[in-house]
């Protein structure tokens, strides 16, 4: 479940970035600080986008930075970053990005429930409003815990 991967310590609000690479680095900072990932994982995410394009921009204004579990992941976890100023990733359909959910997994399956929850939440206007107006990380976590399946 999403509530098991995302916690208040992994949420940053009103972050400013210079470009999409900086956004990926900043979305990884909470996980890096807690030892969930290494710098190698963040670089793998950046390298993937350089190679495959901005596939991580999954819907209007939302990116899901991630890479293979083969490099730099110590613990399955997720972070959330709300940008102060949206940033262009090069995805014509869904740019600019304002919200980033970085996902790091140690295997190929344990995160699927959380992804399903996230997908369902992103379809709710109420959830998107919470992401936009949250004053502190607890506002987001409270909503997730209240409405998680």
UniProtKB/TrEMBL annotation:
Gene Ontology terms for molecular function: kinase activity
Name of protein: Ascorbate-specific PTS system EIIA component
Keyword terms, alphabetized: Cytoplasm, Kinase, Phosphoprotein, Phosphotransferase system, Sugar transport, Transferase, Transport
Task performed by this protein: The phosphoenolpyruvate-dependent sugar phosphotransferase system (sugar PTS), a major carbohydrate active transport system, catalyzes the phosphorylation of incoming sugar substrates concomitantly with their translocation across the cell membrane. The enzyme II UlaABC PTS system is involved in ascorbate transport.
The keyword Transport is annotated on this UniProt entry: yes
Native source species: Clostridium porci
GO cellular component term, pick one: cytoplasm
Compartments it resides in: Cytoplasm
SUPFAM superfamilies on file: Phoshotransferase/anion transport protein
The UniProt record lists the keyword Cytoplasm: yes
All copies of domain PTS EIIA type-2, residue ranges: 4-147
Record-level GO BP terms: phosphoenolpyruvate-dependent sugar phosphotransferase system
Superkingdom of origin: Bacteria
Annotated Pfam families: PTS_EIIA_2
């Amino acid at each position: 479940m999403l509530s098991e991967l995302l916690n208040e310590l992994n949420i940053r609000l009103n972050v400013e970035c210079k470009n999409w690479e900086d956004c990926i680095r900043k979305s990884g900072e909470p996980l890096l600080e807690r030892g969930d990932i290494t710098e190698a994982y963040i670089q793998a995410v950046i390298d993937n986008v350089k190679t495959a394009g901005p596939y991580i921009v999954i819907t209007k204004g939302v990116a899901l930075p991630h890479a293979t579990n083969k490099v730099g992941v110590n613990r399955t976890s997720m972070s959330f970053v709300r940008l102060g100023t949206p940033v262009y990733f090069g995805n014509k359909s869904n740019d600019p990005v304002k919200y980033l959910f970085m996902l790091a997994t140690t295997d190929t399956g344990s995160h699927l429930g959380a992804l399903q929850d996230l997908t369902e939440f992103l379809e709710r206007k109420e959830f998107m409003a919470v992401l936009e107006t949250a004053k502190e990380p607890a506002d987001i976590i409270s909503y997730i815990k209240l409405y998680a399946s």
